[in-house]
Design brief:
single chain, alpha+beta, Pnp Oxidase, Chain A
Length: about 140
């Protein structure tokens, strides 16, 4: 299980933008966000404004889904992560520091930071064999 998370973490460490899908129960929305990922807390940290559609959706439904993907047309190099989790206001100081370590310029904008606490990952990694999937689900929920 930890080995699977380590593989997912290694993939996420090579990227910095995720696609997030949200819903208010009626309408769907998708957006892209810069992220920092913390393996110990199994959480993404993102910045976003209260005026965005996805934050308005989250005020009604904290359950989210998303992806991080390597763009390539070479089938043997296809890699990507799908995730599901809960979108929460960020209260953890260590996670705030992690985000600003990755995106120091964001300090000047004083953004609102959020935590996406992950409960499910699916990594597709064709570099390990065509269609190879690694699935991790948080068994403590």
């Amino acid at each position: 299980m930890q080995n699977d998370l380590d593989k997912i973490d290694a993939f996420l460490a090579k990227h910095h933008v995720l696609t997030l899908a949200t819903s208010d129960g009626l309408e769907l929305s998708a957006c892209n966000l810069f992220y920092a990922f913390d393996l110990e807390k199994i959480s993404f940290v993102v910045a976003s404004s209260d005026e965005t559609t996805h934050i308005k959706n989250i005020s009604k439904n904290r359950n989210v889904a998303g992806t991080v993907v390597l763009e390539t047309k070479i089938v043997g190099k296809i890699e990507g992560v799908q995730f599901r989790g809960e979108f929460l206001p960020l209260e953890d100081e260590a996670l705030k520091k992690l985000y600003f370590k990755s995106f120091a310029y964001a300090l000047a904008m004083n953004p609102t930071l959020w935590q996406i606490k992950i409960n499910h990952f699916k990594l597709t990694d064709n570099t390990l064999g065509f269609g190879k999937k690694i699935i991790w689900t948080n068994s403590f929920l």
